[in-house]
Design goal:
Keywords: Coiled coil, Membrane, Transmembrane, Transmembrane helix. The chain is 83% helix and 0% strand. It is mainly alpha-helical and 383 residues long. Among the domains are: 175 residues, no CATH class; 80 residues. It starts with a helix and ends in a 7-residue tail after the last helix.
């Protein structure tokens, strides 16, 4: 308890300090120092940035594989031809999921293209435009002209008709619907399994009576392990477990030879055979329903994991499509924030340097992401 209170107190204390900083503001000198410190940290963290984006690429490819696994499992679910509470066929689920899978694959390739195409523009921004602005003898007029030309460039990325956020919402909705369906269907299957088990228990009680009749036949015919009939008894005992149906026919033949044909005995033995077949069939049904129940649970868990993974990851993947817009916005910030003082105000220079260093850290990460998606993502046939 004390640890929780302490953590809460720390958060409140930090929040208060940040709000106070916001209220008090920073002097130009402090701002310049803050920007320089952050730029230095970005510069020393480039490897970490690249690694994080690489891990994102691996997660994106793993999610594509998870989508494929779910598609395969949903095909099996659809084969069960479920009915709703009104007896109407439940619409097949795999086609809907294939639509999501196709959208995800398309968006992933588009994010790869966006990362690849934007990299060249970012290099122009960080390697040409910003260094020229920071040159000691750069003119304000030229700086404005260069920035405006960059801002007005044709967008290297065509706006997507779809995006990861919409797909995330659709996957979450599908997962919720399937979860409700699986829970309801699972309850029905569980009840049916229990009904079959109870039926088997009742059949086993009937079978026990029939087995006692078989035992009595053997006793009546003297097929016991005794001194006078040891050879016969042992051979019959060995044959029984191996060929139970055959042994009954043999015993009936023996009874008929001894006292004549008993129609009631034959009827009883037919009933025994039918009971055994019923038990076998019901056990087969239980096995099939158990597999079906496990499949529903498996797909439900797979969908839950996919939806959970999609939350934070899709948000990050979506950012690739907006990198150009953010770069243009940063160019506008530079253009409209005391650009004329770039040679006299350390804060202006530090802000530009911070933006420059930030994109220098992003560029290699974008290149690695594009390479990994191109090499690891499979081209799938969704037909």
């Amino acid at each position: 308890m004390s640890s929780t209170i302490r953590n809460s107190s720390d958060i409140q204390e930090a929040m208060a300090a940040l709000k106070q900083l916001e209220q008090d503001g920073m002097t130009p000198e402090v701002k310049a120092d803050v920007y320089s410190t952050m730029a230095g940290k970005i510069d020393s963290s480039r490897a970490d940035i690249v690694t994080e984006v690489e891990q994102l690429a691996y997660r994106a490819v793993a999610t594509d594989e998870a989508f494929e696994s779910i598609r395969t499992q949903l095909a099996v679910v659809d084969q069960n031809e479920y009915k709703d509470q009104f007896g109407r066929p439940v619409p097949r689920m795999q086609p809907t999921w294939i639509g999501y899978q196709r959208r995800y694959s398309t968006l992933l390739w588009q994010s790869r293209d966006a990362a690849s195409v934007t990299t060249a523009y970012l290099r122009d921004f960080t390697d040409v435009i910003l260094p020229l602005i920071l040159e000691p003898n750069s003119s304000h007029q030229d700086n404005v002209k260069d920035l405006q030309a960059f801002i007005n460039r044709r967008k290297p990325i065509v706006p997507f008709q779809d995006d990861f956020k919409r797909l995330q919402a659709d996957v979450a909705s599908f997962t919720e619907s399937f979860s409700t369906f699986a829970d309801a269907q699972g309850a029905e299957i569980t009840a049916e399994i229990e009904r079959l088990k109870e039926s088997i228990r009742a059949l086993n009680r009937d079978l026990q009576d029939a087995d006692e009749l078989v035992t009595q036949m053997a006793i009546a015919l003297g097929l016991t392990i005794g001194a006078t009939a040891a050879g016969v008894g042992i051979s019959m005992a060995s044959l029984g477990p191996l060929a139970p149906t055959a042994i009954i026919a043999i015993l009936i033949a023996g009874v008929a030879a001894a006292i004549g044909t008993l129609s009631t005995l034959i009827v009883a033995m037919v009933r025994k055979a039918n009971i055994e077949r019923e038990i076998t069939e019901k056990q087969r049904q239980i096995d099939a329903l158990t597999i079906e129940l496990k499949l529903l649970g498996k797909v439900k868990n797979m969908l839950d994991r996919a939806a959970e993974e999609a939350g934070e990851m899709f948000w990050r993947l979506d950012s690739f499509t907006h990198i150009w817009d953010r770069t243009v916005e940063d160019a506008r910030i530079i253009l409209n924030t005391n650009l004329e003082n770039v040679h006299s105000d350390p804060t202006v220079r530090a802000r530009i340097q911070l933006i420059k260093t930030s994109y220098e850290g992003v560029i290699p990460a974008l290149g690695n992401y594009a390479t990994l998606i191109r090499s690891d993502l499979q081209q799938r046939n969704f037909e």
